[in-house]
Specification:
two-stranded antiparallel sheet; alpha+beta
């Protein structure tokens, strides 16, 4: 195994370990000597990897941002830049600014050759959407509610313009080609619904958290959504 590939594999192994793992165990998985393993650990630490530990006790990868030059290939750089530029074009102001800042941080840690790839990529996003429908409610309200697992009371108008009051459990924001939608559990319908954000006239937190964990709710939503898509495909 080439050294660069071995270093990447070593990082992946450490990411998958919650408890310190000995050099002997890591060397065995990589099929190298412990001496080589110690040199590889030292190289990763020199590159900025937050590895904590010492010989005989074991090593653990601490949480933290780590993007040394060896972490990205040319194709991976292209993929990241394409995604961030697409978000910059089509995201709301919050995500657009975040995409610019993330790209600047990534470019700062890339070696010269890959920095050139990032600044002049082969893959480019299509023309930006000129304008999305206006949102009566700032999207930051939905972000805050999703992160806090807060119930929202909204006023929503359907395609015919008929307004209704709903209490929903927001779980995700969807950025579609033409509109943005809020995925949520609707207490009125007792089912998952997708609400176009441009049709939500008002939204405020009720002061209650919805039960369970958002991650579990998202998993159920995806299962239900995939099932509905499959049923539609089956019926033509």
């Amino acid at each position: 195994m080439a050294r660069t590939s071995r270093l990447l594999t070593l990082l992946q192994l450490l990411r998958g370990k919650r408890l310190p793992v000995t050099a002997a165990a890591l060397a065995g998985e990589l099929e190298v000597s412990e001496r080589t393993l110690y040199r590889d650990i030292a190289e990763l630490v020199a590159q900025g990897a937050p590895i904590q530990g010492e010989a005989g006790l074991g090593y653990v990868l601490r949480p933290g941002l780590f993007l040394p030059p060896l972490m990205l290939s040319a194709d991976e750089t292209e993929a990241i830049v394409l995604g961030l530029r697409y978000v910059d074009q089509r995201g709301d102001p919050v995500l657009s600014q975040a995409a610019k800042e993330a790209l600047a941080k990534i470019e700062a840690v890339l070696p010269p050759a890959l920095r050139e790839t990032a600044q002049n990529p082969v893959a480019m996003p299509g023309p930006p959407k000129r304008r999305f429908p206006d949102n009566p409610v700032d999207l930051k309200v939905y972000r805050a509610a999703i992160r806090a697992q807060a119930k929202l009371e909204i006023t929503y108008s359907d395609v015919e313009g008929k307004a209704s009051a709903r209490v929903i459990w927001p779980i995700a924001l969807g950025f579609m080609e033409e509109v943005r939608v809020l995925a949520a559990w609707c207490e009125l319908r007792q089912d998952f619904r997708h609400f176009r954000t441009d049709r939500i006239a008002t939204a405020q937190e009720t002061g209650e958290r919805y039960p369970g964990r958002r991650n579990a709710l998202v998993k159920t939503w995806r299962t239900v959504f995939d099932k509905k898509l499959g049923e539609r495909a089956a019926t033509g």
